[in-house]
User: What shape does this take?
Amino acid sequence: MNRKSNLRKLFMIAIMSINTQAGVMAQQPEPLTPEKLWELARVSAEGLSADGGTLIYGVGQYDIKEDKLHKDLFTLDVKSKQVSSFLKGQGNASVVQVMKDGTVLYLLDGQLWSQSLGETSGKKLTDVEGGLQNVVLSPKGDKILFSKRVLIDKVHSKDKYEELPLSNVYVYDDLDYRHWDTFNDGKYAHPFLATYKDGEIGEAIDLLEGKPFYSPQAPFGGAEDFAWTPEGDAVLYVTKMLTGKDYAFQTNTDIYRYDINSKETINLTEGMMGYDTSPGFSPNGRYMSFLSMKTNGFEADKNDLVLYDRDAKIRLNVTGHWDGTVNNYYWSKDSRRVYFTAPVEGTIQIFEVQVPKNFRARSLPLLRQVSSGQFDINSIIGESEQGLVVMSNTMTRAAEAHLYTEKNNTLTPLTTVNDHHYAQIIENKVEGRFTKASDGKDLFSWVVYPTDFDSNKKYPTLLYCQGG
Assistant: This one.
């Protein structure tokens, strides 16, 4: 009896050992494949509380069969790293603004919703026909700026020929019929302005009524093309007031200011002939800021940060003396400096420029690189007591929210959404390399080695050259 029992135990142990070994073998990391790439979640930083203590972030997953992104929202305590669910299973919500009292405004299915931090369900505020996009509230919260697409040009056959309702043809007799991957369907995004109170939106004014111009810019512009003055008496918007071939060949966008009281519109960047984008204001309200390219027609021109002292009424290019190009920027809370991201040696890093104390002297401001490392810092979300909250990725890892600490130049992950995927993926070796170009200058490139690279073997090489 004891012998049979012992044999049974040995048999069960052997089976368990085989299963355990099979499990370990099944969990061995494997090379990255296109299928695994689609399994990775898309992490987005949606907003930061006024005190910098709570991050709202999105986790999106693509459904290939539906060709649709499903995104849930979460909150994260920046100090403790504690994560809580904020909005789940609702579709694809995006945060508009985190109010000082902790109320979060977000867009869901084109409508504005409200939900407090700590709650798990929201309240629908609006029911606007056609929905809202790119919502920006005024400083006092009593007015709202948003965009809607408006039919201006009848280029589709059903719009052009009402007697042919079953037709499906686009008719073009001029450029611009397509911009990058987006066809011109005759509809233009326009900025709309209205009063706002307790979710009720008043009669909206189309600031580009009847005009064939885009604001935000097509096809990739967003809420960064809109801004409110600190006083809430005017709105700023970006557009390129050109059509046809002129629109296709020129890059001369401008920043326009619409005065709510006088209803007058003025061009704030008249005479600046390249891209003028991303208007904003310092927290203390004294300075206006925007990005600007100098040369019309050059899409990949140097992008500079321009500041305008509203007291002195002087405009100053604060990065014009620096050999680099600005991606995006973020004002420090004390309004004394501006952080911005810029490419350097195959990476994207944080830089800092001091705001000049005397614009009239037109002295060149102090500018320095803040971060360094084999990573990209794509955007700066805000400031917390612990450091800067940023979105960062590497050559082998998708973007996640991080905390950047300047004191020791460290990036600490705040979100680790895809870590369980990467535990099952072999990480490829990546190294930077400088070679001499034909003009004798250093040419930087990244070398991404194959999985399980063997230096004694020969491999085919794929060369990718970035334009711009």
Residues 389 and 403 are 5 Å apart (CA to CA). Helices lie at 2-26, 34-39, 157-160, 244-249, 419-422.
